[in-house]
Amino acid sequence: MKKHNFSAGPAILPAPVLKEAGKAAANYQGMGLSLLELSHRGPEFTAIIEEANALMREIIGLPENYHVLWLSGGASTQFYMAPFNLLDNGETAAYLDSGTWANKAIKEAKLFGHVEVIASSKEQNYTFIPKHYKIPKHAKYLHITSNNTIFGTQMHKFPKSPVPLVCDMSSDFLSRPFDPRPFGLLYAGAQKNLGPAGATVVIVREDMLGKVNRAMPSMLDYRTFIKENSLYNTPPVFPIYVSLLTLRWIKKNGGLKGMQRRNRAKAAILYDEVDQNPLFRGTVAKEDRSLMNACFVMQDQYVHLEKEFLKETEANGMVGLKGHRSVGGFRASIYNAMPKFSVQALVDLMQDFAKRKG
Ligand SMILES: *Cc1c(COP(=O)(O)O)cnc(C)c1O
Questions:
Q1: Which residues does the annotation mark as catalytic?
Q2: Can you give the pTM of this predicted structure?
Q3: Could you tell me how far CA 261 lies from the centroid of its own chain?
Q4: CATH of the domain spanning 15-252
Q5: What is the dihedral of CA 29, 31, 33, 39, to 10 degrees?
Q6: Model confidence over 23-57: pLDDT tens digits?
Q7: Fold held by 255-357
């Protein structure tokens, strides 16, 4: 039986996507060849990447002056590739420190220019999204993390910024509609909400590039990938194909509005239980709760039951619920592809457990 996969990443993918991907890995479109062994310059893959780009543009509603790029190296590569391309020596970039990933992005950006951390929730173990900060007008960009995978907070509103936003959207990419125009660049590792690990999507606005003076290796220059339509070297062919299947699934299921409706409904079921159940409590500010990664712990007097509850989730076919070591307790990642019945199964177990132990 298929498990309820609450893993933070690599994460759950839609069932029909996995089925189709399996077929393509064995025999792509009846060609007698696996997609894994087809040239990235052949007509089959050309059609795949063109459709993926077109669907991405359509689903987000991207204006003409944005490019969609498929890279490798994960979001972690973008932590340095973005400032390398956007921030010259001596220039300033503003960063919002909302979690572990933001912190890593800050560390890398310092290699290339001046970094101004304009607000941080680190002192409170990242239990909220910093608000009420001043964005310096002289900054080249403001870097934000839309969803903090580890701590379970999410920006439900993006800041009004006098400078372009650069955003790590890895863990809530395509989970809700958003206006792309304030964003100069955004990036997302595929393995949270889009496809298999190995592909990273970068969406960049034309006018952001060509403004730094440093020498750039071709593979670190976004313009190389724009010019060659992400085919300068061999791209992550299979992850791009699976991402295309997910994009088709998103479109078929109501686009980003449809995703948002489903995600809100699922998160509401879970957070309502966390708030009502006498054994559990949430770990972050309610207004900043993530619809993608729900973190919760047991109330102090029941902490000794955490291991036992975790065991019961496993016995009931649920995996990936152990909280990140920096938070403890539990984390239920309920990305786009997570069906409502899996969330309901978790909630039912929480209720049952409370009846027996409360
Ligand atoms: C998972 C994650 C990353 C790291 O992604 P890699 O692809 O492993 O480099 C970065 N940022 C966020 C928000 C993430 O969730």
A1: 101, 168, 192
A2: 0.98
A3: 18
A4: 3.40.640.10
A5: -90
A6: 999 999 999 999 999 999 999 999 999 999 999 99
A7: Aspartate Aminotransferase, domain 1 (3.90.1150)
